[in-house]
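F.,

This is the one I mentioned.
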C-alpha cells in the first residue's frame, strides 16, 4: 500500500512538471498556473489560473508575485494591479539600473486596469488585462477585455486587436469631479508603439530603478527586488541602484519627482531607437540630470507659435511646449499621444511647479 502511494506521488510530480520542446513547464505544480507556451495566449484569462477565488478579486495564486513601480504610468486615472509569473526553475538577471530585467522565456507580466468609482454607484470595475509573454522569438502582447458581470476576460483577436477600440466610461476623481470619456483599448500596433526599442517589443516598468522599493506582501514589507530573489525569480541585484521615486511624494526633491514622472510616462518613446528618437529630448531617468535632455531652453521640433517655441521655458510654464502638450486633449497636440484622453491634473501641476521654479532664463 505504502509503495503504491509513493508511486502515485511520483506520477503526479512527473505529470505536473512535464516539459515542451522549449523546455518550459506546461503546468507547474508549485504555482498551480496553467501555462503551455505553445498554446498561449489562451482565449480566456481564467484558463491561466493566475488567480484564485472569484476572478475579479485578482487574488494571486502562489508564485504569481505582485509588484508596483515607484511611479505609475497615467492611463486616464485607471488604477492598476500588476503581477509577474515565471516558469519553475527559471530566473531573471540584472542588466543595469535602467534596463528591463533580463527575463527568461515563459515569463508573463500581468497588468490589470480598473476603476473603483465607476458611476453611477461608485462601483469597482475592471476594464482590461494586458499580458506580455516572453516567447523564444521575443515578447508578445495579449489583450483581454472583461465582461460587465466581471466574471471573465476574453482575448481580443483578429481585427479587433489590429484596430483597437474604445469603451465609454464615467468615473469620479479624488476631487469628486465626474469624468466621462472614451477609454481607449489599444491595438497591437499601439502596444508596440510604446513598447518598441531597437525595433523589438520590450516591457517598460520592470526596471530595477523602478522596483527598488518596499512593497506590502502578505508576510509584510519587503524590497521588491529582494522578493524576486527570495521567490527564485531573480539571481541577484546590486545594493547601489540609482532609483526613481514616487512623484506624489512631496518629501522628495521637486526635480527628482519630475524626472521620475517623465521617465515612466514619456521616456519609453523619448529615447534612442524608440518611437520618438527623432525628437530633441531624452527623458529616461538616467539621462535627465542634463537639463538639455529635459528640453530646458531647447527649441521644439514643432513650436506652438512665436511665444511657445521652447520645450521648457524656465520660469514660465505658459510659454513651454511641454506644458502645452500635457494640458491638451486634442489628439494632434497632446502628449503622451497614447494612453490618455483626459488631462492628468497632478502630473501637469508637477510639471508646472518644476518649470516655474527655475530662475535662470535662456540666453
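My design for it:
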Amino acid at each position: 500500500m505504502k509503495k503504491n502511494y509513493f508511486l502515485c506521488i511520483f506520477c503526479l510530480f512527473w505529470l505536473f512538471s512535464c516539459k515542451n520542446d522549449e523546455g518550459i513547464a506546461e503546468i507547474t505544480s508549485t504555482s498551480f498556473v496553467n501555462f503551455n507556451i505553445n498554446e498561449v495566449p489562451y482565449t480566456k484569462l481564467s484558463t491561466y489560473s493566475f488567480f484564485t477565488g472569484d476572478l475579479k478579486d485578482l487574488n494571486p495564486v502562489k508564485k504569481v508575485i505582485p509588484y508596483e513601480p515607484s511611479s505609475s504610468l497615467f492611463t486616464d486615472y485607471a488604477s492598476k494591479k500588476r503581477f509577474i509569473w515565471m516558469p519553475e526553475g527559471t530566473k531573471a538577471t540584472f542588466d543595469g539600473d535602467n534596463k528591463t530585467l533580463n527575463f527568461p522565456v515563459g515569463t508573463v507580466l500581468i497588468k490589470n486596469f480598473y476603476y473603483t468609482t465607476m458611476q453611477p454607484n461608485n462601483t469597482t470595475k475592471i476594464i482590461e488585462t494586458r499580458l506580455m509573454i516572453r516567447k523564444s522569438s521575443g515578447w508578445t502582447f495579449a489583450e483581454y477585455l472583461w465582461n460587465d458581470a466581471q466574471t471573465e476576460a476574453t482575448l481580443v483577436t483578429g481585427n479587433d486587436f489590429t484596430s483597437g477600440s474604445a469603451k465609454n466610461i464615467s468615473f469620479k476623481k479624488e476631487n469628486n469631479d465626474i469624468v466621462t470619456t472614451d477609454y481607449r483599448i489599444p491595438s497591437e500596433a499601439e502596444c508596440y508603439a510604446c513598447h518598441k526599442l531597437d525595433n523589438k517589443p520590450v516591457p517598460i516598468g520592470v526596471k530595477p530603478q523602478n522596483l527598488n522599493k518596499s512593497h506590502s506582501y502578505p508576510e509584510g514589507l519587503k524590497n521588491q527586488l529582494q522578493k524576486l530573489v527570495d521567490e527564485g525569480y531573480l539571481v541577484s541585484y546590486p545594493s547601489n541602484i540609482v532609483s526613481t521615486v514616487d512623484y506624489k511624494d512631496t518629501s522628495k526633491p521637486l526635480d527628482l519627482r519630475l524626472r521620475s514622472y517623465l521617465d515612466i510616462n514619456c521616456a519609453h518613446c523619448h529615447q534612442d531607437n524608440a518611437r520618438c528618437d527623432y525628437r530633441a529630448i531624452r527623458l529616461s531617468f538616467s539621462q535627465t540630470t542634463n537639463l538639455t535632455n529635459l528640453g530646458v531652453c531647447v527649441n521644439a521640433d514643432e513650436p506652438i507659435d512665436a511665444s511657445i517655441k521652447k520645450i521648457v521655458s524656465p520660469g514660465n510654464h505658459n510659454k513651454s511646449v511641454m506644458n502645452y502638450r500635457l494640458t491638451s486633449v486634442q489628439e494632434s497636440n497632446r502628449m503622451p499621444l497614447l494612453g490618455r484622453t483626459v488631462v492628468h491634473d497632478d502630473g501637469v501641476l508637477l510639471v508646472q511647479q518644476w518649470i516655474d521654479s527655475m530662475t535662470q532664463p535662456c540666453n
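The chain is about 20% helix and 20% strand.

Talk soon.
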